[in-house]
């Protein structure tokens, strides 16, 4: 894949929405910007990979999504005699999930993010079209579909996570973002004002729901305003900024239709802040105030009545308890109250969990995620087991931007281990990036790592909304991911 092919793919994306940016404007920026130059260079065939290694061993990768396939490709590029098997049941597992927000806002179509697993299987890599139903790390094997044992020398777990809608009373089912079997979830989600962008069909339904909200607002005569609610659960989630992104984009669509004054937008989060990094949190607070958004902290969605359009939250807080004479301090009492909120439109970010097959196995932790040394991505117990992506127990690591750093570290370290080296050479520093869409045409590019400080890649104030980051988010990142990262180069 040559650099001009990446540019061609970016310009194809630009051409889809000339009302936002023309091809000429995009070309002017792409030819002048160091940001664009780095994106194009990173996605080109000439990108640096590890030196060729003669290390031998049977490598099994559980999961053929972005993390699994990118890792397979980079290993294939790195090893002279690669023996790699990917286990993945979903024919559409290779998807561009960051695009689900854009589908929900009507900027992309749902087919824009769907890619076939088999089209991105690296040459020479074997594929088992099935699901791992058991892990047996003590005997270096996994079981596929309950009847096929597959042995390995090195195991990489990249299963992704599950969207656990059924954890909310009134909803049912747990699915993956691209899973086509979502009929149980869609019995309630995707209709009657209840929506979620976290799976592809749900994202397409969300845009229809926004259009229905606009139509309802145009007909609304009062009193009061229509209510649009947006939730953030009490579990780790992929793309922590997405619950706010769809709120910002709904705001833009309401403004565009001239009915923003008829709808109240409220963000309900289980946490105590809007964003975990102080500088970005302060900037988002200002954006919320400027746009007239309401916010409720320490509210976790626990129940919903989709017929009556009532959401139920657990509002929780801490109060000072009794004096402890031994510790010479006051105890802390957790208080809870049930809060009901009527809605005309609600966007649900579902609780998320590791797959049960991981949680209920020796390779999983009590919370389900795969416990790894966060800097090396090596399992804490089994030294020939590795993990990355959404299923790995890594702080702030459930984004595609995180995977882009993780898979290079994992490959370097696993190959070193296969070569018998006494130490692992690469370290993951917790880098992640959240291109926080703040309107149709602007993005705040929030980059950070485990220091919990902004770590901008470019000499611009990262707390500011900018149209150039829209260019990166909407036009450049997908080609870079699909044609750069999936081949194991970017």
UniProtKB/TrEMBL annotation:
Residues 58-177 form the FAD/NAD(P)-binding domain. Gene3D superfamilies: 3.50.50.100. It comes from the Bacteria. This is NAD(P)/FAD-dependent oxidoreductase. InterPro entries: FAD/NAD-bd_sf (IPR036188), FAD/NAD-binding_dom (IPR023753), Sulphide_quinone_reductase (IPR015904). It comes from Sulfurimonas xiamenensis. One of its GO terms (biological process) is sulfide oxidation, using sulfide:quinone oxidoreductase. GO terms for molecular function: FAD binding; sulfide:quinone oxidoreductase activity.
């Amino acid at each position: 894949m040559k650099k001009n092919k990446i540019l061609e793919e970016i310009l194809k994306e630009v051409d889809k929405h000339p009302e936002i940016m023309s091809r000429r404007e995009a070309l002017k920026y792409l030819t002048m910007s160091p940001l664009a130059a780095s994106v194009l260079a990173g996605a080109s065939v000439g990108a640096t990979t590890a030196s060729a290694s003669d290390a031998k061993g049977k490598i099994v990768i559980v999961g053929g999504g972005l993390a699994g396939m990118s890792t397979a490709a980079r290993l294939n590029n790195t090893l002279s005699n690669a023996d790699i098997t990917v286990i993945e049941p979903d024919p559409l597992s290779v998807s561009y999930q960051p695009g689900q927000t854009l589908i929900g806002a009507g900027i992309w179509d749902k087919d824009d993010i769907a890619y076939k697993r088999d089209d991105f299987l690296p040459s020479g890599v074997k594929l088992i079209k099935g699901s791992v139903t058991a892990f047996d790390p003590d005997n270096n094997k996994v079981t596929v579909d309950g009847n096929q044992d597959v042995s390995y020398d090195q195991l990489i777990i990249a299963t992704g996570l599950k969207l656990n809608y059924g954890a909310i009373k009134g909803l049912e089912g747990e699915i993956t973002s691209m899973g086509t079997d979502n009929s149980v979830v869609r019995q309630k989600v995707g209709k009657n004002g209840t929506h979620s962008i976290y799976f592809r069909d749900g994202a397409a339904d969300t845009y229809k729901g926004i259009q229905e909200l606009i139509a309802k607002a145009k007909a609304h005569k009062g009193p009061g305003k229509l209510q649009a609610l947006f939730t953030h659960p009490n579990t780790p989630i992929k793309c922590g900024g997405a619950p706010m992104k769809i709120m910002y984009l709904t705001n833009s669509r309401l403004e565009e239709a001239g009915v923003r004054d008829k709808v109240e937008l409220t963000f309900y989060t289980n946490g105590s802040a809007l964003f975990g990094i102080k500088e970005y949190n302060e900037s988002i607070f200002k954006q919320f105030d400027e746009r007239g958004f309401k916010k409720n902290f320490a509210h976790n969605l626990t129940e919903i009545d989709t017929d009556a359009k009532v959401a139920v939250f657990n509002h929780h807080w801490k109060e000072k308890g009794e004096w402890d004479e031994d510790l010479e301090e006051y105890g802390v009492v957790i208080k809870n109250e049930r809060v009901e909120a009527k809605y005309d439109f609600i966007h649900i970010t579902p609780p998320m969990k590791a797959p049960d097959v991981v949680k209920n196995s020796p390779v999983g932790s009590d919370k389900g995620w795969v416990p790894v040394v966060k800097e090396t991505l090596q399992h804490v117990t089994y030294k020939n087991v590795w993990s990355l992506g959404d299923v790995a127990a890594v702080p702030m690591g459930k984004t595609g931007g995180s995977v882009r750093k993780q898979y290079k570290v994992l490959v370097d370290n696993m190959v070193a281990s296969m070569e018998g080296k006494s130490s692992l050479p690469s370290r993951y520093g917790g880098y992640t990036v959240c291109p926080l869409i703040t309107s149709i045409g602007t993005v705040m590019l929030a980059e950070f790592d485990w220091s919990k400080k902004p770590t901008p890649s470019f000499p611009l104030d990262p707390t500011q909304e900018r149209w150039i980051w829209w260019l990166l988010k909407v036009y450049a990142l997908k080609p870079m991911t699909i044609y750069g990262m999936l081949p194991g180069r970017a």
